Amino acid sequence: MQVQSKPVLKGARVTLRAPQPDDVAGRLALGNSPELHRLFGGDPSQTRALTEDAAQAWVDRLIGMDHGWVIEMDGRLIGSISLHSLNLADMRAQMAIGILDESCLGQGLGSEAMRVLAAHAFGTMKLHRLSLRVLGFNARAIAAYRKVGFREEGRERESALIAGVWHDDILMGLLSHELLDETRQ
């Protein structure tokens, strides 16, 4: 698979960079956490050990995305972030993020990565709106999104079945003039 040229986007602590074929080892080292699997909408009891093939598929998927980046901190892969469902006519896209290193949770790294990507989306790409969806029980993610300026815009009731239990999806949006910098949190 050919690696696409993507800009390197830098924050104070994180760097968003194009995925590379050698990221397979970094992804493999992070493994699969049942708790993270649940927060991403999977059944934690169905979490399996991450295989090299699955790590390769993760990297290949990111490489194949026009707007998909690896999140790196101190030279190591900690997750990914992307824009998808890009609609240039309406100047909008959807954002997705996954911090896969549990030791990096709760440190503001996800908020920083989202802020960096949103600044790129609103500045360089000239988008007007970003949106995302998050499971209603994922309080840490919702707080991180709010730190960036995302606002709740709706709720899809009982839209996700996880381990036999229904959960709501919260729909959130951010307009270009609503992006919060770290000093205005």
Automatic annotation (TrEMBL):
The keyword Transferase applies. Residues 14-177 form the N-acetyltransferase domain. One of its GO terms (molecular function) is acyltransferase activity, transferring groups other than amino-acyl groups. Pfam families: Acetyltransf_3 (PF13302). InterPro entries: Acyl_CoA_acyltransferase, GNAT_dom. CDD domains: NAT_SF. Keywords: Transferase. It comes from the Bacteria. This is RimJ/RimL family protein N-acetyltransferase. It comes from Litoreibacter ponti. The lineage of its organism: Bacteria, Pseudomonadati, Pseudomonadota, Alphaproteobacteria, Rhodobacterales.
